[in-house]
Amino acid sequence: MNLRRKLFVTFGTLALLGLVVAGVSIWATLRWETSNEDLQGHYLRSLQAQRIRAITFEAFKEVSDALGENDSDARQEFEQALEPADRDFEMWANLAETDEEKRQVREVREDYDTLVADARKFFDLLDSGRRNEAADLADGKIEEADFENFVASTGQAVASDRERRDEVRARAEDARRTAQLVLIVAAFGTISLMLLLAAYLTSDLFRPLRELEQALEDVGKGDLNRHLDAERADEIGAVSAAFNRMVETIGRREQMGSSSADQDGAEGNGLAWRDAPSRVTLHRLVSQLRTRITRLGNAETADGATEEERRELVSQLEGLSQAVARVTEFGFPLDLDLSRTDIRELVYRVFMRYGDEFADRSVSLDLEISPEVDYAVVDRLKLREALAELLRNALDALPERGGHLGLRSRLSEDGAELLIEVDDDGAGAEQSLIDAAFDLAGDGEEGQPHTGLTLTKAIVEQHGGSFGIESEPGEGTYARMQLPLRR
Predict the structure, then answer these.
(1) At what angle do helices 99-127 and 74-95 cross, to 10 degrees?
(2) How far apart are CA 427 and CA 477, in angstroms?
(3) How confident is the model over 334-393, as pLDDT tens digits?
(4) Helical H runs in 331-410?
(5) What is the DSSP secondary structure assignment for residue 268, as one 8-state letter?
(6) Looking at the DSSP assignment, which residues form a beta bridge with residue 469?
(7) Which string of DSSP letters, residue by residue, matches 123-144?
(8) Domain residue spans in the chain?
(9) What DSSP designation does 361 have?
């Protein structure tokens, strides 16, 4: 798993825990508010029931006063005491939410209406002088039946509201405990993830960065033997591998710089000098030219220059001219100007550079660019000229008319390398001659080194890749550039 995915998973989990905490907090808050509203509603309903019962009790004291004390104002005071009852019943009915609560309001209202109706009948009997009948009604039906029914129904309503309040409190308490448990688990998970993240950043990120910082300081002080562990399959491993390649490149440059300073000295110093093909090629050609000119001058002094020697000298000069042109086109291969380059466009443009010649010579073409090939960090100009050199060599190997030439660009199976392949069915050559073309140790007496191919190989190797050619007489030639894929 790469570094980006690890951080994404970690912070994604933290974000998920944050959402869980926020969701649970919102849920608990809503449950708490709902519970408080339910409790408040039950309290108000209970208060209304108790208020109606208190009003009724207060009003029916007048029945006793009218019977025992002959209070002439008892009926008027009874009606005045009952005046708030209708408004309280209406408020109580509005506060009822469930069918059960509405049924209780209706039952209490029925008992209340029966009680009030019998009380008014009592006052009617009393006003008509039928005192004994009024007393029997008060002591019998009103006291023993109506009043007891009213007290029972209002008491049941108050008790029912109390039970519901207890249920609401229990639900609120359950919600509180649930929310508390979830928050504790989420807090524990968050703390654990934070500790894991801190440990990960310390071991897998900060420590490698400190090692990279120390390695850069060591390289700055001249230690070119410093290497980092590049086995990790993430961005840190890629940076470490790039650092190692950089150190190796710097080491090769310093080695070649020191070799060029004393390349005319001991023979052992020539080994490093051979790693700089453009300079070595020119050096060898100039040395061969100097030798030929010296020999030609001696020949002129003695017997005069032969025509064959003159032709060889001209050929030598032409070889030197081509080598200088190649170096001018390619540039010194160590000085890479890396940039993010569209490989598809580069391959297509180089291929079309020879479009007219393909058509004039009736060459059969095969251009294949895999869909996964897109961008890579390379030296655009040098890679373009290296590819053009391969196409030019393939054209030179084909007959004057006809022949087949193929150009393919694809990624390796593991996707870590960019492959650019050129093949032809031309004359071909012995593999030993192909290998000798890259051997700069020869003296050039039997032909000029293939400077373009030598520089192509140097450019590919400076990119950290490899270059190879396979050929067989009469079967054609296959060349492949294999470059590390850096996007």
Answers:
(1) 170
(2) 8
(3) 567 888 999 999 999 999 989 899 999 999 999 999 999 999 999 999 999 899 999 998
(4) 343-353, 355-360, 380-397
(5) G
(6) 479
(7) HHHHHTT-HHHHHHHIIIIIII
(8) 3-193, 225-275, 330-484
(9) T
Q: Facing residues of 472 across strands?
A: 476
For 62, the token pair is 């007048």
Distance CA 292, CA 263 (A): 21
CA distance 187 to 267: 73
Two tokens, residue 168: 């609401």
* Kind and range of the H or E run holding 423: strand 417-424
- Residue indicated by tokens 């825990």: 17
- Identity (one letter) of the amino acid at 453? L
Q: Which of 464, 455, 462, 451 is nearest to 417 (CA)?
A: 464
Read off the tokens for 287.
């040395």
pLDDT tens across 105-116, in order?
Answer: 888 889 888 888
Half-sphere exposure of 296 (CA within 13 A, CB side): 17
CATH number of 330-484: 3.30.565.10
Distance CA 177, CA 438 (A): 81
Whose CA is closest to 339, among 283, 385, 378, 291?
378
Report whether 118 contacts 60 (CB < 8 A): no
Residue 37: both structure tokens together: 């509203």
pLDDT at 80 exceeding the cut of 50: yes
Class of domain 3-193: mainly alpha
CA distances from 142 to 82, 139, 251 (A): 16, 6, 117
